From TrEMBL:
PANTHER family: FOLATE GAMMA-GLUTAMYL HYDROLASE, PROTEASE FAMILY C26 GAMMA-GLUTAMYL HYDROLASE. This is folate gamma-glutamyl hydrolase. GO terms for biological process: tetrahydrofolylpolyglutamate metabolic process. InterPro entries: Class_I_gatase-like (IPR029062), Pept_C26_g-glut_hydrolase (IPR015527), Peptidase_C26 (IPR011697). It comes from the Eukaryota. Residues 1-31 are annotated as: Disordered. The keyword Phosphoprotein does not apply. Its main location: secreted. It catalyses: (6S)-5,6,7,8-tetrahydrofolyl-(gamma-L-Glu)(n) + (n-1) H2O = (6S)-5,6,7,8-tetrahydrofolate + (n-1) L-glutamate. Belongs to the peptidase C26 family. It comes from Gossypium hirsutum (Upland cotton). The keyword Secreted applies. Keywords: Hydrolase, Secreted, Signal.
Length: 386
C-alpha cells in the first residue's frame, strides 16, 4: 500500500498532490512551497492585526467597518437609510427674545430715551442649538409686539436691571400669554435668566417687593442640587453624570446679580411654591443661599438666576468661566430650550418670520464701551408707548 507521506514506487515521478516526507532533505525542491503554505496565511493575519492595532493606537475608536469582527456588513453600509423626522416636531423653531431698556452700555452707544437692546450672546445662545430669533421690542406698539409673539415657538427673558414700569407690564403680559398658550395645549417654553427670573418671582407672587439682596456680582459659582431632586424631564436631564457632579464642585456657571430669592422665602410664598420647584441653589459672596435654578410644575418654564449664555459668548467680565466643562453647560442648556420649542404646535407663515427675524438688524460691537457685553442689538422707537 502506498504511503501517505512517501512517493509512489510504481511511478517514476512524484504525484502532484504528494507532500515530501519529513525525512526529505532541506535542499529538496518542494520545501519552499511547503513553507509558503504555512507562512503566507500567517503573514496576512499579522499584517491585519498590526493595521488594527495601529488604528486603535492613533484614533482610539474604530468604525464598524474597520473592526473586522463581523459587526457590520460592508455590503450594506452604502445602502443605509436616514431615519425620518418626527412629524410631531417642528424643526424650524423661532424664539422671541424680549428687549431691555437702554443700549446695554449706559448710553455710551445710544442715549435715545426710547432705545432698547438685546445682548447678542442670547441670540447666539439660541442659534447654537438650532433656532432663530425674533426680537420682541418691549416699547413697540402692543399690536405689533403680540403679532410677533404669534410667530415664535418660545420666549426668552434676558438679564438686566429694569423691574418696574412699562417693562414690567410687558413682561407680565407676555408671561400671561405663555401660560394661556400652554393651557390651550401648545407646548410653549419660557426661559427666564437673572432679571427674567426676578420678574417672574414678582409677577407670580404678586409682590413687587419680594426680592432679597444678594452679593453675587461678577461671581463664578457651583450649583447645589436640592436633596432628592429628580432631574428627569428638566433642563439637566441630558447632562452627562460626570458633568452633573462637576456642577456641584466646580465653578462652572456665571452669576451677576444683586437680588434674588432664598429657598425659604420661595417655599413660604404660596403662589411661588405652587408654581415653582427648586432644582438648585447657590451661595453668594457672603455665604447667603439663594435659588439658582427653578422649574415650573406643569409648564415648560425654567428660571435661572445664573447666566447660561455667557460662558460661550461673553468675554467682558473676568469671572466668566470658559473651560470645556463650562462651554458644555451652555450647550446643554441651550439644547433643552430648543428641544422644548420644537414641541410647539405653532407653524408661522414663512414670509412673516423672515420679515421679523433679528437678521433684519445689525449688532453693534460694544466690547470697548460696554459693561460686560461684547455685542448688542439696539432698537430705537420714534415715540415711546404710553
Amino acid at each position: 500500500m502506498p504511503s501517505l507521506f512517501g512517493s509512489n514506487p510504481s511511478s517514476s515521478d512524484p504525484a502532484n498532490d504528494t507532500v515530501p516526507s519529513p525525512s526529505s532533505s532541506c535542499s529538496s525542491s518542494s520545501s519552499p512551497d511547503m513553507w509558503n503554505y504555512f507562512f503566507i496565511p500567517i503573514l496576512l493575519c499579522l499584517t491585519k492585526e498590526l493595521s488594527l492595532a495601529k488604528a486603535q493606537t492613533s484614533t482610539g475608536l474604530l468604525l464598524p467597518n474597520q473592526r473586522g469582527d463581523g459587526s457590520a456588513d460592508d455590503s450594506l453600509i452604502s445602502f443605509s437609510s436616514c431615519a425620518n423626522a418626527d412629524p410631531k416636531l417642528y424643526y424650524r423653531p423661532v424664539i422671541g427674545i424680549l428687549s431691555h431698556p437702554g443700549d446695554g452700555a449706559s448710553g455710551r452707544l445710544n442715549n435715545d430715551t426710547n432705545a432698547s437692546y438685546i445682548a447678542a450672546s442670547y441670540v447666539k445662545f439660541v442659534e447654537a442649538a438650532g433656532a432663530r430669533v425674533i426680537p420682541l421690542i418691549y416699547n413697540e406698539p402692543e399690536e405689533i409686539l403680540f403679532q410677533k409673539l404669534e410667530l415664535v415657538n418660545g420666549v426668552l427673558f434676558t438679564g438686566g436691571w429694569s423691574k418696574y414700569g412699562l417693562y414690567y407690564d410687558i413682561a407680565k403680559m407676555i408671561f400671561k400669554k405663555v401660560i394661556e398658550k400652554n393651557d390651550r395645549g401648545d407646548h410653549f417654553p419660557l426661559y427666564a435668566v437673572c432679571l427674567g427670573f426676578e420678574l417672574l418671582t414678582m409677577i407670580i407672587s404678586e409682590d413687587k417687593n419680594i426680592l432679597e439682596p444678594f452679593s453675587a456680582s461678577n461671581q463664578a459659582s457651583s450649583l447645589q442640587f436640592v436633596e432628592n431632586v429628580n432631574v428627569e424631564g428638566t433642563v439637566f436631564q441630558r447632562f452627562p453624570p460626570n458633568l452633573l457632579q462637576k456642577l456641584g464642585t466646580d465653578c462652572l456657571v456665571m452669576q451677576n446679580h444683586r437680588y434674588g430669592i432664598s429657598p425659604e422665602k420661595l417655599q413660604n410664598t404660596p403662589n411661588l411654591s405652587r408654581f415653582f420647584k427648586i432644582l438648585t441653589t447657590s451661595t453668594d459672596k457672603n455665604n447667603k443661599v439663594y435659588v439658582s435654578t427653578a422649574e415650573a410644575h406643569g409648564y415648560p418654564v425654567t428660571a435661572f438666576q445664573w447666566h447660561p449664555e455667557k460662558n460661550a459668548f461673553e468675554w467682558g467680565l473676568p469671572m466668566i468661566p470658559h473651560t470645556d466643562d463650562a462651554i458644555e453647560v451652555t450647550q446643554h442648556v441651550a439644547n433643552f430650550l430648543i428641544r422644548e420649542a420644537r414641541r410647539s404646535l405653532n407653524r408661522p407663515a414663512t414670509q412673516k418670520v423672515l420679515d421679523s427675524l433679528i437678521y433684519n438688524y445689525s449688532p453693534t460691537y460694544c466690547g470697548k464701551a460696554g459693561k460686560g457685553f461684547d455685542e448688542v442689538y439696539i432698537f430705537t422707537q420714534r415715540r415711546a408707548r404710553i
